[in-house]
Amino acid sequence: MWRRRKKYRLNLVAILVIVSLILSLYSFYANYTSASEKSYTTYIVAPGDTLWAISKRFYPDQRDVLEGVDIICEANSQDGKPLEPIIYPGQILKIPTWR
Questions:
Q1: Quick one: which of 72, 65, 69, 78 has its CA closest to 93?
Q2: Domain spans in the chain, listed from the N-terminal domain onward
Q3: What is the pTM of this model?
Q4: Which fold does the domain 37-98 belong to in CATH?
Q5: Is 92 exposed, middle or buried (CB count within 10 Å of its CB: 0-12, 13-18, 19+)?
Q6: Sign of CA pseudo-dihedral 36, 37, 39, 45
Q7: Which of 44, 49, 80, 86 is deepest in the core (most CB within 10 A)?
């Protein structure tokens, strides 16, 4: 009888630890996704525009302009292929913005 109680308590503790771990991971994930929730602005490429200039315009606080270019290229990927770094006047780009 004593062994059954000990086993029962051990199982109960293990279940409680697992549940608390799952809840804390869920809480972390919910905070992370809400903080980094993206919305998009559309931008029509004008003659003479470059991805570099567009990146500097939409992400002025970013130290590395190339990182902004990568973000724009990834947001405009098609069929899993990233946008080529060549853009054309009249092309519509999705520019990610964070809330």
A1: 72
A2: 1-36, 37-98
A3: 0.58
A4: Membrane-bound Lytic Murein Transglycosylase D; Chain A (3.10.350)
A5: exposed
A6: positive
A7: 49
